[in-house]
Design goal:
Strand content: 15-25%
CATH class: Mainly Alpha
Number of strands: 7
Helix content: 25-40%
CATH topology: DNA polymerase, domain 1
Radius of gyration: 18 Å
Structural class: alpha+beta
Strand order of the largest sheet: 5-2-3-4-6
CATH superfamily: AF1531-like domain
Order of helices and strands: EEEEEEHHHHHE
Length: 201
């Protein structure tokens, strides 16, 4: 497996969006220490890590809420327990996930434009742009030729010059595919790691 962020030294998420808040914990908790205690499921803002969080005492969280989980003082989050797999998300969290991802993709337009402007070949026969849904070789070459003329400056600019419709939806679909795992390449997310330990202080 390889991913777009392999050279990035950053290891942790700074902010996350709440997907589901369980004030009484999971209904079926196999870890006695967490039984009946508040738990939140969230997705990281930078690498889309799916995370299990413990909120601070007497804190209530709302789906879609952005919370600080990085190093330093955390107003609402006590600690990060672990990374989650897509399958471990609650039904509510799975339903909320596409909406939160869309919010992130729209608010971080420059980050994803950087990918569209600089995405490299993966092999002599495969380009990373082809990993995007509905982007075949013909469209890939249109994108490459257009970005050689001038970098794309917005999603709207990209769509007008390439003829690709709803690039935001395409990126969201790719992110969701990566979060479900079993991909050879990861463009926007950190590859899933089995049975990870807690990743935050």
């Amino acid at each position: 497996m390889s991913n777009l962020w392999a050279r990035d030294k950053k290891k942790f998420e700074e902010y996350a969006y709440i997907l589901d808040f369980l004030p009484r914990g999971y209904l079926r908790e196999s870890r006695p220490h967490f039984m009946g205690k508040p738990i939140a499921q969230a997705v990281g803002e930078d690498f889309f890590m799916l995370l299990e969080l413990v909120p601070k005492s007497n804190v209530s969280l709302s789906p879609g809420e952005r919370v600080f989980i990085g190093k330093g003082f955390r107003e609402k989050i006590d600690r990060i327990i672990r990374r989650l797999s897509f399958e471990e998300l609650t039904a509510f969290a799975k339903d909320e996930l596409p909406r939160v991802i869309e919010k992130i993709v729209r608010e971080h337009e420059n980050k994803f434009l950087q990918f569209l402007n600089n995405a490299p070949p993966l092999t002599t026969k495969m380009h990373s742009l082809e990993l995007l849904p509905r982007i075949g070789k013909k469209t890939m070459w249109v994108i490459i030729k257009e970005r050689e003329k001038a970098p794309f400056v917005s999603y709207e600019d990209f769509e007008k010059r390439t003829g690709v419709n709803n690039i935001v939806g395409i990126i969201i679909e790719r992110i969701l595919t990566e979060l479900k795992g079993d991909e050879r390449y990861y463009l926007f997310t950190v590859p899933p790691l089995p049975k990870e330990k807690a990743i935050g202080p």
